[in-house]
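Morning!

As promised:
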Amino acid sequence: MLHQKKYTLAFILLLVLLVICFCISISFGSVTIPFTDTISAIFGGDLQKESWGYIIRNYRIPKAITAILTGSGLALSGLLMQTLFRNPLAGPFVLGISSGASLGAAILIMGASLFSGVFTFGVVNNVTLAIASSTGSFLVLLAVMIVAAKVKDTMALLIIGLMFGSITAAIVSVLSYFTDAEQLQQYIYWSFGSLGNLSWSQLGLLGAIVGTGIIISIFTIKSLNAFLLGENYARSLGVHIKKQRFLIIVATGLLAGGITAFAGPIAFIGLAVPHLTRQVFNTTNHKTLIPAVLLYGAILMLLCDTIAQLPSSAYVLPINAITSIVGAPVVIWLLIRKKKMVF
Amino acid sequence: MKILKIALFSCFLILASCKEKTQQPLPTTTAKPTKANLSYAKGFSIEKQANGITILKITSPWPKAESAFTYALIPKDKAATITLNKDDYDAIVTVPVQKLVVTSTTHIPALESLGVLDKLVGFPNTDYISSTAARTLIKEGEIEELGVNQSLNTEMVIALNPDVVVGFGIDNNNKTYSTLQRSNIPVVFNGDWTEETPLGKAEWIKFFAPFFNAEAKADSIFKTIETNYNDAKALAKKATNRPSVLTGGLYKDLWHVAGGKSWMAQFLKDANANYLWSDLQETGGVGLSIESVFDKAGKADFWISPSSNSSYKQVAESSAHYTQFDAYKNKKIYTITLVKGETGGVLFFELAPNRPDLVLKDLISIFHPDVLPEYKTTFFKPLQ
């Protein structure tokens, strides 16, 4: 009971923090825009400069919303995987989802150099990249599903996911070897991850994907709690193991695959956020953990994005590097301070 | 059996102790060596010694190179009388060269204008070559494909046994070149790409000249290019307006513009245009956030080289933000990607460093059509 009260307060604090981080994220960027103008841009007022309105409305706000969606989606899929495999090292990409996406993107960007010299596979832009990488991750996921139906043991599934990852990474290496600098650069930039550059319609699609993933997860809360105690125990509680495992994998695939398609492979968030969350919400009940990781992930991503934009300078850092540079020391510090891991 | 082994081993010892070349004093002469006159290029120097040897020094094989490379070019007819200490030079080449391998498309136009393209026997990634003369030779099998991905196929090069390989490296760690040198094929580094000025790059034609005893020809070719360039520059000064220019395009969230001290920025300056990032100190590309680019260049008059896009439709598809720029709205975007060789190599990358006069005229005719009316551009074409 006391715990419940404490958690309610924590949730309120996190929500407030989320709103503050959102405001910070849209107020700061390379171009210095006064706060009053930022507010009037949101509410359609007059601005000193026409271009500012465009920057805030069509670049910063979509970027901040993308950050919220990617952060919370990746954090949730990380939590699902850690619970399913009962492994604190698991993350959203253990099933080879991100390597599948990388393969899709690599074939689109660099495939032309291997398969012919002149024509390309079509224009490389946000839409085609999203299609290519989601197709890639979907195919790898499909392979994992087929294996999951055959394999009884969840750990075997983990190894198989890693093997898929190795295979796709190897194919990407071969493609990279035969491609020219321009295309290699394009691929590398895709792999750095990026939150900007999504149009409102793409953002809607991403929102729908993440939303679906969250809804499926909510339906599996009961079995998630049981999974933590081991598959045999879950079975004795009457959990339909195969079906629930299938649902959890689908939710993860949607979340991690969809996000990777639109924002590129963003590392670390999925692995670290569940651990950060457990430090505060010391519980194994997913009813509490799921909303908590959603909030945590969103806040962390917004902060990372603000740092990556290097306020008031024309330079930008790749989001993928920032998530790890900022996140890893925090996790290390927390684990040392607590002297043990909460899992 | 044992005796045979000992005999073999002692033979080996005797052979190994033989000096490769015996040292002889160089013929003493009173004449002074003459230095080739280089007005713009900073990355190399040529010195002709009185005994007929040409010393080619490459001071900038790659950016921030710590040490220079020194090559000795010995005339064939004097090769028998001259002995050099191998250790003093990074490579010794007998000239005129009959067979050579080059590794960058930027080397092709120099060979072509010096009239020695027939001496080229191999090239890595021949698809990138645009020159029609070279393409014909490739079709006839005169120029062999030597592998892909900037990495020479070592075995094929050794089989071709060229008199010299003109290589380029981004640093001193190229295993292929080391292997070739060990198999006694001289490798000479060309650093034309490190040159930062338009005429400096073009002057590297003089680097190729001593390999073919074509110094006079190279000088006159460069003189013509220099005169054309300076005339065009003077012409551009006559224009009354200075349109503002934006360069490059997005890679995900980063917009790559040409640095303020880059080769392209100097062209823009000489074409009498106002390059919006001329204050940046970089000599290469610079990645900036899209916000800052839009803020600064949303109203720019012209947009040059929008990454690899070749049509307005493609530009709009690759990012919705592009469509907000005035240059997009007013259809003032020009690209180099539309002029390609037979197999897809972009002509600009091959020929532009050698022909800065053509690049400058292209830009002047775009920015100041009244100054160069009816001019047909070589590299830059309006987006489709």
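Chain A has 14 helices and no strands.

Hope this helps with the figure draft.
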